[in-house]
Amino acid sequence: MNKHEREDVVAYRKIFLERMNELKCKIPTFSGDNLKEVTWPDNPLILVTHDECIFLAYDRSWSF
Question: 26: closest CA among 16, 40, 37?
């Protein structure tokens, strides 16, 4: 069994998806060519996500 199939992960995923479905009406909708058309709801919720990458605050900084 991989980590994505663990009982606690599956249970949390269900809770997370239910909550995201509740918030769907507050999230801007992108459509059209190249997703340039945006429909903004009242009091929008802006999601900040990541894709499991690690980001450093001073990446490529050469001074120490």
Answer: 40
What does the alpha-carbon distance between residue 51 and residue 42 come to, in Å, rounded to a whole number? 28
| Cβ 41 vs Cβ 26: under 8 Å | yes
Residue-wise pLDDT for 11-28, tens only, equals 999 999 999 999 999 999
Distances (CA, A) of 2 to 6, 7, 30, 53: 7, 11, 34, 20
Cβ atoms of residues 35 and 28 within 8 Å: no
Distance (Å, whole) CA 31 – CA 8: 35
Between 64 and 33, the more confident residue is 33
